[in-house]
Here is the input.
Amino acid sequence: MTALASAFAPSAGLADALQVTLLLLVAAGATAVVLVRARVRQVLVLSVYGLLLALLFLAFQAPDVTLSELTVGSVLLPAVILLTLAKVRKREE
Amino acid sequence: MTPAARRWVFLAGAVGLAAFYLFGLSGLPGFGHYPGPYGFIISRVAVPQTNATGVVSAVNFEYRGFDTVGEEFILFAAAAGMAVVLRQLRGEHEGPPVDEAADRDLPPGSEAVRMVALLFTGPIVLIGWWLASHAQANPSGGFQGGVVIATGFVLLYLSGEFRVFKRLSPADVTDAVEAVGAGGFVGTGLVAVALHLPYLQNFLPRGTVPGAVSSSGTIALISFFVGLEVTAAFIIVAGELLRQTLLVRGGER
Here is the structure.
C-alpha cells in the first residue's frame, strides 16, 4: 500500500510538472470539445475530455473525485448524450 | 435591436464581467496556499474522532452530513423528474426499432465489444460494491460505488443484452431501491434525533480499529444507503433513455 501511495506522490518537481501538463491538456481538451462540430464525434471528444479531467483530479490528489469523474464524465454522460442524439435523429427523419 | 447596438451591449457586459472576474481573482489565496483553519483542524481530529481513515467520507457523511442529504436529493429529484417527463403517455406504445434505411448495410455488432463488455460487467459491479462499502477506509464512498455499479449495467446494454438489462432492473425494483436509499439516509439522521442527539449525529459504535470495515458507525451505514440511491438513480436514468430509443410515438406511425 505504501509503495502504491508513494507512486502517486512523486517528488515535488515532478508533481508540479505533471499538474501543469494535465492543466494544459485539460484546457486543450475543453477547447477541442467546443471546436468539434460533428455531433457524434463531439461526444467522443467529450468522453476523452472526461478522462483527462479524471487524471487531473488524480494529479491533485483527489482520488474520490477521480472515481466519480471517470464513470460520470467519460462513460455515463457521453452515453446519455448519444442516446438523446439517436432519439432526436429518429424524430428528424 | 440593430447588430451594432447589440455588439455594444455585449462589449459592456464582457468588460464588466472581465473586471469583476479579475477583481475576484486578485483576492484569492496563492495556488496551494490554503488560508483557513477548518481543513487543518479536520485533518487532525477526523481519524481519532470518527475512526474513519477515509477522511473525505467522514466530512461528507458526518461533519457535513446535512449538506450531503441535499446533494443526494438533487440526484433523487433529477431521476424522479426524468421518469416523470419520459413516462409512457396515452397513444404511445413500445415497438421494435424500425429499419429507417433498409438500403444501407447494417454494420454487424462487434464480437470484441460484446466479449469485453460481458467480461467486465461482473468485476465492475464487484468493484462498485467494494467502493460503496469501504467509504470509511478508502477515498471512496457511496456515490463513487453507485456510479461504478451503474456503469456495469450500461456495459450489459453495450454487449447487446438490453433484455437482460431490463430483466435485472425492472422499474418497480429500481424505484424502490432508490426510495430506500434516499429514505435510509434521512432515516438514519432521524434515529439520532429519536435518541435525543442532533440530526445525523453518529450514534452507532465506532469500532476499535480505525479504517476497519466495521469502524466509524453511521458513516459506513450512510455510505451504503447513498450507494443504493445512486446506483438506482443512474440505472433509472440510463434505462429511461434506452427505453426512449425503442419507444414509438403514437402520432408518428
